[in-house]
Amino acid sequence: MSFDAAFVSPGESIDYTPASAVAAGSVIVQSGLVGVAKLDIPANTLGALAVSGLFDFKKTTVAIDAGAKVYWNATSSFATTASSGNTLIGLAAETVTSAGATVKVLLNK
Fold it and tell me: What is the pTM of this model?
């Protein structure tokens, strides 16, 4: 190969084949890469995960400032600002109070 890298795609989504069925809107963590299932993906079937874009994530009862780092707690399936034991999903695109149920996140930013 005579190059160090070659363009493949804009990188807005990646292929994903789950071992068990995945519902649209499910958050999938693969090591440090977070994706959101765009559509239902049956088990052992090629589908796609969005890895960029603006998404509403369910969140814990914590206030979040716009621009703050947001993490995914895979155990509770909620977004949070607590980094310990959680995976970075992106940056908050809005300020929300602790009473808010969701937060807009720029995925993988």
Answer: 0.89
- How far apart, in whole angstroms, are the C-alpha atoms of residue 83 and residue 99? 20
Mean of all residue pLDDT scores within the chain = 94
The residue extents of the domains of the chain are: 13-50, 54-107
Q: Which two tokens stand for residue 4?
A: 């160090």
Output the CA–CA distances (angstroms, integers) from residue 20 to 16, 23, 37, in the order listed: 11, 10, 13
Nearest to 25, CA basis, from 58, 2, 3: 58
3-state secondary structure the chain: CCCCCCCCCCCCEEEECCCCCECCCCEEEECCEEEEECCCECCCCCEEEECCCEEEEEECCCCECCCCEEEEECCCCEEECCCCCCEEEEEECCCECCCCCEEEEEECC
pLDDT at position 1 over 70? no
Specify the pLDDT at position 8.
87
Extract the tokens encoding 70: 């947001």
Return the pLDDT at 16. 97
